């Protein structure tokens, strides 16, 4: 049977209006008929108010997954999810508010670096972040590895911090896009996660609730990213851009490489440590480059530079002048974190157990299974396997090589850090399999693959 | 994003095996990867045992609806649903057991006619039937309009009746394909009803549970059928045949017309009445023709005839000799029904209120909105609007004309029967709109459109 034909289901005549309406909307999406904004709003608000059961909504999600949603539908979905909760009113904060969102990856700590840079350059950065999810770390968990650092500020504390120092980094509150939380939980167990319109609405409903003027997007692609190939990453980027624009937000997206860890440090405190070093101008490489690109774009969107390039230059000036690191200290202090530890990170004790992964051969590092490297960090204690798990904040990996590097036999490729000997042993025995070497020289993957405006 | 790409969902690593397995199977169907029989069996048995929540199963149903299921998957689905319950063991009954299934329509009372004909010709007919559903009547409701007739025989009574007279007509017991009942309820509210593989498994799991050797299928097409066009009806017929054959059952399918009521009587007692008249050889026309064709095919499948045509001749002999009507009386008696009323149906009082629909013009009857005629009968009391509604057994319509008939102004086109004046009034005022007349002569639709073996 042609699935698009609409057969008259006699059952409909026997139902209440409420049920009928829901079934009719599912049927339309199933039959590839474009939904109106009202229909989408009805589905989201009814589901959020518990007026539509999970089993109807999951059937709707699968129909949306398989048949897609166009620009207008995605925008309407985002709007409905956004208005399921509160939009933070930042009108009392003078100046432009720009945030960044990354689709997540391994060692991706740019938020910790670009927020102080952009704030130092005069941009307000009202950042609401997430927790780690599987192989991919979360900004909140990283910040909480700083003793005393509070990510659970209430709205008035949140506004106070941004007013004082131009940046704030907190977790999602209950008021923000509650529909997203509900829907995500359902998507997670009904195989409806990897859908561009659904991902777009999930991301954008939360970001738009921050009350921002503009947004810089970092869409990752590669073995450690959710979007494995460039085509999918670009499709997601374009969907995010379209949606942001439909809300009159300024937006720039970068498609960036996630075929290897970003920077060298993976794990919560380890990433704070590396971020400090970048902010202090001591560490260069891919992490610095990407952080500056993103903060450069934020500075440009915030009209403090006439181009992304100028924004990048300003970013470097903020690092060189010490203003970016100063701003970081200010944020840490205002959010209750230990400034002493940030000022003297070397003195903060390391993990109890450290093990080295030694190269068994001479060769060029060709590929790393970046997803599994993220999972190895989680295994060492840097992430949660269940919601109840406690994070071992100092656990993680210092991955010392980049794709294209020549590695000598006997050289240290990576350090594994954990509080548990057993975990180290477990990860250590499988780690080498995640690497592939070549006799031939290897071209490093391009970090910034595309800029879309 | 190409929906077929399989993105690695990190969430999976965080789940229990049970959940993971379910999500993985939904994902496979979502990504158009063929499911194994084990995977389908896992889904059905887990759902039936309440180990998979509705929201996962409905997402699976929508994926199956949109991506389809092939022959083997449909057969595995049928098997899993069949084995969710009991298969009736009819080995103690000597002789071949053949049933008929119709996809339902308006005035479709062939079961009442062909069961006694086939039984009279030496075929065992162990028939498990359903209730009315919306515009479409149900054999059980019709039988229950005979005072005393019991459709709720238990298994041992069921076997006793068929042993004694070669035919039995009961309702579905709890033991038979319980998965189907559960799944159908969920499909009904998640816009996943009109799917050929799902319809196939629903029908065949119940029919195969009867312990039959062969099956004759009557797949209706037209305005009063679930399959509005020939193409869909044929696709369903082929799917049903493939599935029956995969269980080594002999099967013949007919695609038959449902653009107008079958016979002239619609409504429970009215249809019993007409069936009596056909069995007594007093009424000819489309109802007799189709009933004989179906019983002819049953007699052929049961090897009591060398062709369908010979089976049809034998059917006519059974009517002419009075054996078919005798067999009907025997069934009624054994199932507790009033034989007296069947023998003297004219004496059984009619509906309190009867109204005639009079032609307002001269012309050839061109089309009837057969779905709405079925709904009108329901409205008069012949069906249930909610599960709790009681049926008015004598309510219904005597539709006196056939498509192609020339109708004179002032002629009675239909009689409406009901116990409620208000209902008659309500239906009467809208009835004429369901008819279309033409100045030109009209070719009657072909009754039996196709035979598929």
CATH superfamily of the largest domain in chain A: Nucleoside phosphorylase/phosphoribosyltransferase catalytic domain
Ends apart, CA distance between termini of chain A = 43 Å
From the alpha-carbon coordinates, what is the Rg of chain A to the nearest angstrom? Answer: 23 Å
| Major β-sheet strand ordering of chain A | 1-4-5-13
Strand content of chain A: 5-15%
* Name of the CATH architecture of the largest domain in chain A: 3-Layer(aba) Sandwich
Number of domains of chain A: 3
Question: How would you characterize this protein structure?
Answer:
2 copies of one chain form a homodimer. In chain A, α2 (37-48) packs parallel to α4 and α16 (370-382) runs antiparallel to α17 (421-431). In chain A, α10 links the parallel β4 and β5 (250-257). The longest helix of chain A has 17 residues, at 230-246. Chain A folds into 3 domains: 14-68, Transferase, Pyrimidine Nucleoside Phosphorylase, Chain A, domain 3; 98-343, Nucleoside phosphorylase/phosphoribosyltransferase catalytic domain (Pyrimidine Nucleoside Phosphorylase, Chain A, domain 2); 350-438, Alpha-Beta Complex (Aldehyde Oxidoreductase, domain 3), CATH 3.90.1170.30. Helix content of chain A is 45%, strand content 15%. Chain A is an alpha/beta fold. In chain A, the strands form 4 sheets. In chain A, strands 1-4-5-13 form a 4-stranded mixed β-sheet, sandwiched between helices. In chain A, strands 6-9-11-7 form a 4-stranded antiparallel β-sheet, with helices on both faces. Residues 1-17 of chain A have low confidence and may be disordered. Chain A starts with 16 loop residues before the first helix and ends with a strand. Chain A is built from 17 helices and 13 strands. Chain A has helices at residues 17-30, 37-48, 54-67, 71-82, 110-120, 139-144, 155-165, 178-188, 196-208, 230-246, 268-279, 286-301, 308-320, 323-334, 339-343, 370-382, 421-431, and strands spanning 98-102, 125-129, 167-171, 214-221, 250-257, 265-266, 353-358, 363-368, 396-399, 406-407, 412-418, 435-438, 448-452. Chain A is globular.
């Amino acid at each position: 049977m042609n699935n698009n034909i609409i057969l008259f289901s006699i059952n409909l005549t026997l139902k209440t209006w409420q049920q009928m309406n829901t079934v009719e909307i599912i049927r339309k999406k199933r039959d590839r008929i474009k939904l109106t904004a009202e229909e989408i709003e009805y589905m989201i608000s009814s589901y959020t108010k518990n007026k539509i059961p999970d089993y109807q909504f999951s059937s709707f999600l699968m129909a949306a997954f398989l048949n897609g949603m166009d620009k207008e539908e995605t925008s309407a979905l985002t709007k409905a999810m956004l208005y399921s909760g509160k939009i933070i009113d930042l009108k009392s904060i003078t100046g432009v508010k720009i945030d960044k969102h990354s689709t997540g990856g391994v060692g991706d700590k740019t938020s910790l670096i670009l927020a102080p840079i952009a704030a130092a350059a005069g941009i307000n950065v009202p950042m609401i972040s997430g927790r780690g999810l599987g192989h991919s770390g979360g900004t909140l968990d990283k910040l909480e590895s700083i003793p005393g650092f509070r990510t659970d500020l209430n709205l008035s504390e949140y506004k106070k911090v941004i007013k004082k120092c131009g940046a704030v980094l907190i977790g999602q509150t209950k008021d923000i896009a509650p529909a997203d939380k509900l829907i995500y939980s359902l998507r997670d167990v009904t195989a409806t996660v990897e859908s561009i319109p659904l991902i777009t609405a999930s991301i954008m409903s939360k970001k738009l609730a921050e009350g921002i003027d503009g947004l810089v997007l970092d869409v990752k692609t590669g073995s450690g990213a959710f979007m494995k190939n460039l085509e999918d990453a670009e499709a997601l980027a374009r969907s995010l851009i379209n949606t942001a624009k439909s809300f009159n937000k300024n937006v720039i997206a970068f498609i960036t490489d996630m075929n290897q860890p970003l920077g060298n440090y993976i794990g919560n405190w380890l990433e704070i440590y590396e971020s400090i070093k970048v902010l202090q101008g001591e560490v260069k490489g891919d992490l610095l480059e990407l952080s500056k690109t993103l903060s450069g774009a934020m500075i440009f969107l915030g009209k403090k530079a006439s181009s992304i390039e100028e924004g990048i230059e300003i970013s470097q000036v903020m690092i060189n002048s010490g203003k970016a690191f100063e701003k970081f200290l200010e944020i840490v202090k205002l959010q209750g974190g230990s400034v002493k530890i940030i000022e003297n990170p070397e003195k903060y004790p390391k993990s109890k157990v450290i093990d080295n992964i030694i190269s068994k051969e001479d060769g060029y590092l060709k590929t790393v299974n970046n997803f599994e490297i993220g999972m190895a960090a989680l295994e060492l204690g840097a992430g949660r396997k269940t919601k109840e798990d406690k994070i071992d904040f100092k656990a993680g990996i210092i991955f010392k090589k980049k794709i294209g590097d020549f590695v000598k036999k006997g050289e240290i490729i990576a350090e594994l850090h954990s509080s548990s000997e057993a975990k180290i042993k477990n990860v250590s025995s499988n780690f080498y399999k995640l690497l592939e070497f070549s006799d031939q020289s290897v071209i490093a993957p391009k970090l910034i693959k595309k800029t879309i405006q």
